[in-house]
Amino acid sequence: xxxxxGGFAWEMDPSTKASHALTCQEQHFLSLSPDLLxxxxxxxxxxxxxxxxxxxxxxxxxxxxxxxxxxGERLDQFDLDVFLTCAQHVGIQPGPASGLVRIDLDKTAxxxxxxxxxxTRRQILASLRRLEAGRIEVRDGRFxxxxxxxxxALHDAMTNRCLVELNPEMLQSLQRVGNVxxxxxxxxxxxxxxxxxxxxTLLRLSPGVCIPLKGLSDLCGNAGVDPDVVSQALGRLxxxxxxxxxxxxxxxxxxxxxxxxxxxxxx
Length: 267
Hints:
Layout: E1 2-5, E2 8-11, H1 24-30, H2 34-37, E3 43-44, E4 53-59, E5 67-73, E6 75-76, H3 77-87, E7 100-104, H4 105-111, H5 118-133, E8 135-139, E9 144-147, E10 150-156, E11 161-166, H6 168-175, H7 180-188, H8 194-205, E12 208-212, H9 213-220, H10 227-236, E13 246-249, E14 253-257, E15 264-265
Parallel strand pairs: 3-6, 12-15
Antiparallel strand pairs: 1-2, 4-5, 5-8, 7-11, 8-9, 10-11, 12-14, 13-14
């Protein structure tokens, strides 16, 4: 029997397969909350011109049960755009492994509401390389694991297509919110305002959170954010939320409340 995991295949005796199954505790640990990574400072709320390399960079999120650190080139909202554009097609196109998708760079550029120029294709490829090379270490006090957002990105220069394999845990985390296609399409309609896109992701993926505005810059990875920028962005996002789902309290707290679920306090 050939078993495939993380893009690598090896021969496995069927009698030993059971010993490689995840325990309940391991399954729980790997069931990552989507806002841990996608609505944190891992993908900073701006479009970066320069991308410093970091090592063991602290990922700030509103998820108290997990700690995460990142090593690699800093990621921004364009990198998240590229990841999500690939993710929306997983399950539509058949593939031999979970998270495997074949993308056309020209079509992907249009889905990103960008032109299909050689420069745009180069930017998409560069983003895939960053996502492939970066490493995220997640811990909870007992377990730890290392993740790469993209396991592999195989580029065909003749056809301008890429075979991309997304990290299965990150993909499953995203799919738990439901209607990934609708989420991604709404995001792309927001225009190229990085803060709008970051807040839209927080609104969609967080089960509920209460954030002091003075700490929002750490959470979103944009030191230049201020209450006026947040207030204007929330005004533009009003059509994507239910009445009473979000509030900006005396320009001090941002609170997202979902039905049944209580908001988590962020520290």
